[in-house]
Amino acid sequence: MRKKKKLTSSEIDGVQYRRSPTWQIALAQMNGGAGMCFYILMGYASYVANAGYGILTAMVGLILTATRIFDGVTDPIIALIMDKMNTRFGKIRIIQVSGWLIQVLAIKILYDWASGKGHGIITFVLLYMLYIIGYTMNNVAAQVMGPVLSNDPKQRPMINVWSTIYNYFVPVSFSMVIVMGVLPKYNNQFSVPMLAEASTICVCISAVFLILSVIGISSVDKPENFVGIKAGNKEPVKIKDMIALFKSNRALQMYIVAATSDKIAMTVTSQAIIATMMYGIIIGNMQISSILGLIAMLPSIVFAIIGARYAGRYGNKESMVTWTKVCIALAVISIIFFVVIDPRSIASFGVTMILFVLLHLLLNGSKMCITTANGAMMADVIDFELERSGNYLPAVVSGTFMFIDKIVSSFGAVIATGCVALIGYTNTLPQPTDQLTNSIFWMAIGLFYGMPIIGWICTLFAMKFTPLSKEKMVEVQKSIADKKAMAQAEENVQ
Fold it and tell me: Which of 283, 297, 323, 434 is 20 to 30 A (C-alpha) from 376?
């Protein structure tokens, strides 16, 4: 006889919540690790487009923006398919495995089998679109995992601690392998052979994460965990329902404002050309970015745990506000720091290096706290909609968000490439060996620190108007429990 899933009760609000074992959460969230491998690799898309397909810098930005819009269009489609899916094998595992296979096919052709073979813009665009379909499937599956694993307000932020750990550990580790292990083999040039080797490493590492994630999510990826609270509610969801959802759900609207503003900033700062200007040209040591990431790994995890506990105690909304204010202050201080010092002295491992590392650790750690609360808030938005409408549609809610999120953040790549084109990089891209100029300095600092500040200001605005306070979510969970009991009673009578 299968052991019944353990339920615990909050000592504060008295609501009985659904929880999952820590080991299960840790494995399930490795789906994010698999996704981040591809995400980091695609950060070099500008280089493979230029070196492997002969596409000019400005055109690369436009292509990445257009395909990002396509990325947004695929989200509601995949979400609708997923919420309609009802198999004995569940739905999360089917979507995430299928998405991984599509991504592998796309990046191997894009970075290896077709790159440098005389193909042009059409081949690049088609392969990038194929990758986007797989990437979207992976993202939709990841968004659904959290609400299914737990609805406990104290455990939900901890779920996102694991997600944050992988989302930080994997990019840092993978980037270190690429920048310190692969790049030097090719004379520190992002060449076609170098990018092909990087794609093979990406496939191997992501496969391990995928297998472990499938193991972790298996026990909760069941049809009974995807039902609403309306008795006899079997109506299939349609596109018009997604539009109505966006128009009527204030929690979703404000979450979109907060998350998309941060996302477009992250999209800009995560572009390889920005990292090249910041670390390779301004600081003068490209490898220091990977070393710095390694140093920041453990403190960031500690910050994520602190942020999760803070969110569990004060609510996700209050946590977002607090840590966003901290990030703004630290980013401003970082800008002033770069202005008053000689940036090249950072690479000399002296006092300025210590100060830079300290600022980086504090800022990066505070970002982890925001990310942890942000992820948990999506689960709150899903439950808010469940209580409001009676429909449990985690994929549709997350798909609606991701559609708008990707449309907005699609401009991140064109902002990055467009800005570097303004300072002279029209036919080539920044390389670590380029000469530092004032235009490069101010453009890199403005994009690296200025863009996130704008995003965080938007977050503060959104949190001012969101209904998802800690007290409101207690009411939501109580209401869901009562409505489910009433729906069950009605079905028993029938």
Answer: 297
- Residue 38's nearest CA partner among 121, 113, 116, 135 is 135
DSSP of 240-301: HHHHHHHHH-HHHHHHHHHHHHHHHHHHHHTSHHHHIIIIIIIIS-TTHHHHHHHHHHHHHH
pLDDT for 399: 83
Instruction: Provide mean pLDDT across the span 91-108.
Output: 95
pLDDT band at 199 (very low <50, low <70, confident <90, very high): very high
Question: Any alpha helices (H) in 315-350, and if so which ranges?
Answer: 316-340
β-partners of residue 18 are 7
**Across all residues in the chain, what is the average pLDDT?**
86
Instruction: Specify the amino acid at residue 151.
Output: N
| Nearest in space to 22 (alpha carbons), one of 129, 152, 112 | 152
Q: Supply the pTM of this predicted model.
A: 0.77
Residue pair 125/63 in contact (Cβ under 8 Å)? The answer is: yes
The rounded distance, in Å, linking the Cα atoms of 366 and 371 is 9
Per-residue pLDDT at 380 exceeds 80: yes
**Average pLDDT estimate for 391-395:** 79
Residue 209 confidence (pLDDT) above 70: yes
- Band (pLDDT 50/70/90 cuts) for residue 38 is very high
Half-sphere exposure of 319 (CA within 13 A, CB side): 31
Q: Which long-range contacts (CB under 8 A, 24 or more apart) does 482-485 make?
A: 483/229, 483/387, 483/390, 484/229
Contact between 51 and 190 (Cβ < 8 Å): yes
> Does 314 have pLDDT greater than 80?
yes
| CA–CA distance, 111 with 119 (Å, rounded to integer) | 12
| DSSP type of residue 182 | I
* Amino acid occupying residue 138: N
**CA-based nearest residue to 143, from 328, 455, 405, 415:** 405
Place of tokens 């096919």: 105
Is residue 149 within 8 Å of 20, Cβ to Cβ? Answer: yes
Nearest Cα to Cα of residue 255 among 352, 356, 137, 379 = 379
Categorise residue 188: left if φ over 0, alpha if ψ from -120 to 50, beta otherwise: left
Cα–Cα distances (Å) from 236 to 91, 147, 230, 483, in that order, read: 16, 20, 13, 20
Residue 72 clears pLDDT 80, i.e. is over it? no
pLDDT class for 208, splitting at 50, 70, 90? very high
